[in-house]
Specification:
- The chain contains 4 helices and no strands.
- The protein is mostly helical.
- The chain has one domain (about 5-30, about 40-119).
- The longest helix is centred in the last third of the chain and has 26 residues, at about 95-119.
- The protein starts with 8 loop residues before the first helix and ends with a helix.
């Protein structure tokens, strides 16, 4: 069912919507509270797991290592923006590490699944 959507305009729209949503939530001076009040690292991990899964699904021919690099750079950019005093946010290099680790785990699973599916 979802395989037919891989690489579709809808999949790409979902991916870019997740990127925009993640950026906006990361730079809002006072983001809304989430149910269960998850800590900042869990929010980063959830956002980057979502973006990496949607990115691999939306762009199935895009090299996974390049997607990892770009999403990791996006996580670093978020931390740079969060360092702007006017935003009243906290920049933390460990958030970037969590982002990159989450993307790495998801894309490794995608690589493994694609390899098994093509065998």
């Amino acid at each position: 069912m979802l395989a037919g959507w891989s690489g579709s305009r809808s999949a790409r729209t979902l991916f870019w919507a997740s990127v925009i949503f993640s950026f906006v939530m990361a730079v809002l001076p006072h983001p809304p509270r989430l149910p269960g009040n998850p800590n900042d690292k869990l929010q980063h991990i959830a956002a980057f797991v979502t973006m990496s899964a949607l990115g691999a699904w939306a762009y199935p021919r895009f090299p996974l290592l390049r997607l990892l690099t770009l999403l990791s750079a996006f996580g670093a950019a978020i931390e740079v923006f969060q360092a702007i005093p006017a935003l009243h946010r906290d920049s933390d290099v460990w958030d970037w590490v969590a982002d990159t680790a989450a993307v790495s785990v998801v894309l490794l699973a995608v690589w493994w699944w694609r390899r098994r599916a093509s065998a």
